[in-house]
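Review this chain:
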Amino acid sequence: MKNVEIYTTQTCPYCIAAKGLLKKKGVAYTEIDVGADPALRQAMTERAGRRSVPQIFIGGTHVGGCDDLHALDHAGKLDPMLA
């Protein structure tokens, strides 16, 4: 499985939903909480081009946020990306 990174905040419902989908698929991921660290959020923004959370990377490729992750799954494209 490819390395999965997810930038989150503690109270974000979209972050919780994205992590839930990854857990359901048995995917281990690295969670980076940007809620209390402006420098981490800035690094995420520079990397992803977006300030909102979650921001998800699979194998170093930016896939977007929660809706993007679910759309990939519904299109049957998420599992091949994770493999």
